[in-house]
Amino acid sequence: MFSPRFFIILFTTILSFASLYIPQPILPELGRVFDTSPSEAALLVSITMFPMAFAPIFFGYFLQSISAKRLLVISLIGIASCQFMFALATSYEIALLSRGLLGLALPATFTALMTLTTEGIAQNRVRTAMGVYIATTIIGGFLGRVTGGTLTTLWHWQAPFLIIGTLLIANLLLISRLQTQEHSKFAKPRFSMIIEILRTPHYIFSYLAIFCVFFVFSGILNNLAFRLEEIDPQISAARISATYAGYLIGICIALGSSKLVRTFGGELTSLYVGLLALLISVVMFSIKSTDVIVANIFMLSIGMFFAHSVLTALVNHHATYEKPMVNGLYLSIYYAGGGLGALIPTLVYVERGWINMLALLGLFCLFAGIFVRKIFQTAE
Fold first, then answer.
1. For residues 6 and 131, what is the distance between their CA atoms, to the nearest angstrom?
2. Residues forming beta bridges with residue 185, ordered by sequence position
3. Tens-digit pLDDT profile for residues 168-199
4. How is the chain split into domains, by residue range?
5. Are residues 81 and 29 in contact, defined by beta-carbon separation less than 8 angstroms?
6. pLDDT (average), residues 123-133
7. Roughly how many angstroms between the first and final C-alpha of the chain, as a whole number?
8. Could you tell me which of 8, 214, 17 has the C-alpha nearest to residue 106?
9. What burial letters (b/e) apply to 81-108, b meaning 16+ CB within 10 Å?
10. pLDDT-derived band of residue 320, with 50, 70 and 90 as boundaries?
11. 60, 170, 222, 349: which could join 357 in a potential S-S bond, CB 3.0 to 4.6 Å?
12. Which tens digit of pLDDT belongs to each residue from 13-55?
């Protein structure tokens, strides 16, 4: 499984996810640069996720049939171009446009990467492969945030976008050596297939559960920088980005998810454990302390990535010929939750305060628990 081809896929995953999350720890700084409110600054993250919620479903209608490798090359060029466009933006509107366009390019990349990750792998190793993939997305998300915060403090806010964009272009040399199977194509999706998947209880409740989980996770992380500045007005972008270190615990969770599922006696109990950790973290964020927030990122990440790993494996385990479409829909629902989670809680935070925002996120944790139970009730 751990072949040079697999490492090329993982390295590409790291760069792609880094490009998505660079702005998150520097949203207050970007708000000052472009003279915007916190909710407008938050749009620089959420607007990227909104196209990602729909593009995985619809890009097939426009691309007809294309190999996964070619799709990856085209989308990576698009991602790199968006990084350069954002770095050179002279107004908030241009910056917002570049992030919106990024949201159109990323889902093609992610769907290709998820499918290539499990291509040619035995069914009993799918969970392990997806665990490695998710661990890599965590590394990418963390490096994007740390790069954004650290280079903004040491140099300039434009630096991380220029560096990631350059690395993405250089990475095309590795992609050119990527060997893929002939059948790994994204055929034009049939609307009937989408309906069939969404009418399958196992899939729809899995999708709704991950929607709620990522809504909560995104709601916390997208407002973290604003909350830290509210508690400590002198905090630097580098210090804010270091707060995300707890996010790395997700790597251990993703890689060890198979063993953890066996330890807890199955997927249902495992998902409940993940959701409980998520809910506890939401409650703990009510404590007004930067130290508690830093420590609590660990709990938040444990809950999020354990649930995410188990749900991703469940969806892929049941998928056969329609795997690209199943993964595309999973990503659509996932990022719909992330996009709304990056926006709605911010609006509540600005208008009603931090505690009311946490109450909303706690409610979504409970909704996720209901949907998880439905997954297994329909399978009985």
1. 13
2. 67
3. 999 988 888 776 655 555 556 667 777 888 88
4. 4-176+191-379
5. no
6. 68
7. 33
8. 17
9. bbbbbbbebeebeebbbbbbbbbbbbbb
10. low
11. 349
12. 999 999 999 999 999 999 999 999 888 998 998 899 888 777 6
Using alpha carbons, list the distances in angstroms from residue 97 to 6, 48, 89, 103: 33, 9, 10, 10
- For residue 22, what pLDDT is reported? 94
CA–CA distance, 308 with 333 (Å, rounded to integer)? 12
Q: Distance between CA 176 and CA 58 in Å, rounded?
A: 26
Range 4-176+191-379 classified under CATH 3.40.50.720: no
- The single residue listed with the structure tokens 């969970």 is 127
Closest CA to 221 of 278, 159, 177: 278
Dist. CA 127–CA 258, nearest whole Å? 7
Confidence of residue 7 (pLDDT cuts 50, 70, 90): confident
Q: Are the C-beta atoms of residues 99 and 44 closer than 8 Å to each other?
A: yes
Rounded CA-CA distance 247/254 in Å is 12
